[in-house]
Design a protein that fits this description.
Length: 525
């Protein structure tokens, strides 16, 4: 497996260059058709993200899985249709307080884009406090930032349909919220290996067969939303980011802030449907090193402990082809990496009571399903509306920490006509823990002299308001309530910790819309 994956990576560039076809073209904001329904020529492959005002006749090209122009950590996910006179569009302008977009930055971005070079990035700063419940009360600050380059190889090297993506991220701050709430998984936005500057992605992205097939290979991370994900999740600052928490907890892959070798194949049978699958090197060694996935020892294949293989199929629409956009997908994950049994030691005894090293096991499988649907609009022509979404992750073999995970939420895009780019979100997530993990935690409490039973289920709720105060800049106050904090990170769990309250403020700056930088379109589904 190691040799075959290494060979695939080494020969990928020449092979894809030979097979390449002309890359897709998508319209920029400035090239939207007028209200009459007439279309203008489209011959560029960039998304122009400068949005000082939303013109009444604008037609928004949108990510298929969520409302158009919602700031996210990722570039758009699908291939938008050309807007028509029937496409939904933003009717009212957003009253921004200020703008960071200057002609200087705009001109630099356009000059670079003409040469095939696109800057991208974000900065998310979050201040949070735990005033009630949990195991401690206090406040803390975290910062998560990313900076990257996307290269259009058609312009740079005359390779049709080819792109290169590079992204590095930085995690910094005062540690995890679990030190206050007691919940190890109630706050995952900054759950990284450690503070540090790390490679998130370094890939070759190739469109083939008239944009019916897309091959991505290099250093990447399936947990970052590539599978079982939605940009909509990143509108919630606490326990949702890119994917449902169950996938993050149960997979052998290291944290989503780093990367390992992988290949993903995406097939588009129709405009609205897709099938994709991939294989990644499971490299737990990354969790215990300060190497941060930069070129070095972990770029070899000798640190691999197995393969992480997800597959997914789905159906997605957007505002250019559906007045009530929807997204449905179903997936399966096979993870053959080693993991530690949550209950038994190598002698087959409960390790919490008898000590020793955890029993080594191999192989886990997981099934998941997701659904998102805009169900109501105040105006059928507008992009404002109410979205329902839900997800379920079910372990089908192995003893991962979470047996079943469920997500249910509602997202109101443009709750007020006067502020069409603001949002209100509410989400609830329930984690049902594996029976062996429950027994291990009960044994741990028993050994410490407690007679309490560890709760086999943890539920989290978040409600927030996202105020889009400037192009690409959103200020989001939020409130979180946790039932039965898990205390999994504590060597001595405390009894009678039944709830925790957390509140905070997130400042999210997406560089492309904030500074008027063009964005190179990529296809994820």
């Amino acid at each position: 497996m190691k040799a075959s994956l290494a060979g695939a990576v080494s020969f990928l560039g020449p092979l894809l260059a030979a097979m390449a076809v002309q890359a897709q073209t998508v319209p920029t904001t400035g090239q939207q058709p007028a209200a009459t329904g007439t279309t203008q020529p489209v011959n560029v492959t960039v998304w122009q993200s400068r949005q000082h005002t939303v013109l009444q006749k604008e037609r928004a090209v949108t990510d298929p899985s969520m409302p158009g122009l919602v700031p996210s950590l990722f570039t758009p996910g699908g291939i938008p249709s050309k807007p028509t006179a029937n496409s939904a569009h933003s009717i009212a302008p957003q009253p921004y307080l200020f703008s960071l977009d200057t002609k200087g930055g705009d001109n630099v971005g356009k000059t670079m884009a003409r040469a095939g070079v696109y800057l991208t990035g974000w900065d998310a700063s979050e201040y949070s406090g735990v005033p009630a419940g949990g195991i401690n009360h206090g406040s803390f600050f975290n910062n998560f930032a990313g900076i990257g380059l996307d290269l259009d190889m058609q312009k740079l090297a005359h390779i049709p349909g080819a792109k290169i993506h590079f992204l590095a991220d930085d995690v910094a701050g005062q540690g995890h919220a679990g030190e206050f709430t007691g919940s190890n998984w109630g706050y995952v936005s900054y759950w990284g290996n450690h503070d540090g500057f790390q490679i998130r992605e370094f890939t070759w992205d190739q469109a083939l067969f008239k944009n019916k097939v897309f091959l991505l290979a290099g250093r990447s991370m399936p947990k970052g939303g590539e599978f079982d994900g939605s940009d909509l999740y990143c509108k919630f600052p606490t326990f949702m980011c890119s994917v449902p928490t169950t996938m993050t907890i149960n997979g052998s892959m290291p944290s989503f802030v780093t990367s390992s070798w992988g290949v993903r194949l995406l097939i588009k049978p129709t405009e609205k449907s897709y099938i994709k699958g991939g294989i990644w090197e499971a490299e737990p060694w990354l969790k215990a090193t300060n190497h941060n996935s930069w070129p070095g020892p972990d770029w070899g294949f000798d640190k691999s402990e197995g393969e992480f293989i997800p597959v997914e199929g789905g159906y997605r629409t957007n505002f250019s082809n559906d007045r009530f956009p929807r997204a449905y997908d179903i997936g399966f994950i096979y993870d053959d990496a080693k993991y530690s049994d949550p209950l038994y030691n190598t002698a087959g005894q409960p390790k919490a009571l008898f000590g020793g090293n955890a029993q080594s096991r191999r192989g886990r499988t997981q099934f998941y399903i997701q659904a998102q649907q805009m169900i109501w609009k105040p105006d059928a022509r507008d992009t404002r509306g109410l979205i329902l979404f839900g997800a379920a992750n079910i372990m089908t073999s192995g003893d991962a920490p979470v047996k079943d995970g469920f997500v249910l939420g509602v997202f109101d895009w443009g709750p007020f006509r006067a502020r069409p780019r603001d949002s209100v979100g509410l989400v609830v997530q329930t984690l049902r823990w594996d029976r062996r993990l429950v027994q291990d935690m009960n044994d741990t409490m028993q050994k410490q002299g407690h007679h309490n039973q560890w709760n086999g289920q943890e539920t989290m709720l978040e409600i927030n308001y996202g105020a889009n105060i400037a192009p690409g800049i959103t200020l989001t106050p939020y409130f979180q309530y946790i039932w039965n904090p898990d205390e999994l990170a504590m060597s001595r769990p405390q009894p009678d910790v039944h709830y925790a309250v957390q509140s905070g403020l997130l400042l999210n700056i997406q560089f492309n819309p904030a500074f008027g930088l063009p964005m190179l379109h990529r296809v994820r589904n």
